[in-house]
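Hey all, quick one. A colleague (J.T.) asked me to put the zinc ion job into the tracker so the inputs and the structure tokens live in one place instead of scattered across chat threads. No bug as far as I know, just bookkeeping. Sequence used:
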Amino acid sequence: MRRRALRTIITGTCCFLTLLSLSGLSAAAPSSVVFCRYGPKTGMTTTFQLRTPTRNGSSDTFPDVNSKWDQPRDGGSNPHQGIDLDAPYGTDVFAVWKGWVVAAAGGQVDLYLDLDQDAIKDDSAWATYMHLSTIYVSVDSYIDVTARIGKSGGSPAHLHFGIRKSTGLWAPDERYYPQGWSTGRDLDFVCAVSQSGNVIRATAYAKDDGATVYLQPGDVDLYHRDSTTEPWQEADMTLVAGSQTRWEFNLGTIYTPGSSVRYMIIAERWDVIDPYKWGIFPAKYEQPPAPDPNESWAYDYLTVAIQ
Ligand SMILES: [Zn+2]
């Protein structure tokens, strides 16, 4: 296993946090709405299907994805905290859900989503649009899902779009787009994580200028542990037969029935610069508050009961 220690990986992903702070967003009160299965710590169990940020008339469109969410990229402050959509200069971009505009300047719009449609700003998720050449909305306004937010810009022109939670977490876009974009899988570097019995499966591949970049055996690891006190163990996931993008590992080969096992997935691109090589699922881009192992990890995990 050509791997560095997990702690090194986590440290390498946290140094861009200072870029993330936004003014005007207070800590969210507990909401009655759950909006995605993000992890056992949050208890979220429902996937929301947002509108897309681009339209043809009143219909959603699914432009090419040039770079995926959480994707390690060469030469940038990565991993990618959003997706880059192919959007020629001046393309209209729209709200993906109704909500409050909390930033609208410098080519960037942040829209706090009103997921339960109660007009109360407590849903703890927002959408970010970047590199806009024109902005049509103003801070503190409440806009509908049909609202035109602005026009794409940038050089080369594209729309950077992403979803964030007010707790400081970036939420995978794939959760919000079960249709289109290859069932959401073109959006996130590591995505579509599922569990069948003791087998954990995940999809992982990159998009560079729209071209698919496949990972190699040894590049996708399942980190696992059976208690809060044991250190994380790593296992190479293997390609599902006949697939170039789908990976799996059977935890039943390691743990006995009845075990409660925590896991996370870390995929690595060896063609990009250190330390921005890793995509982590579930992702949680925060400064680690305590060393591993600790309940207040800066990273998240999922749990499976071994059968
Ligand atoms: Zn981007």
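Adding what we noticed when we looked at it: The helical segments are 6-12. Residues 50-176 form a domain with the Glucose Permease (Domain IIA) fold (CATH 2.70.70.10).
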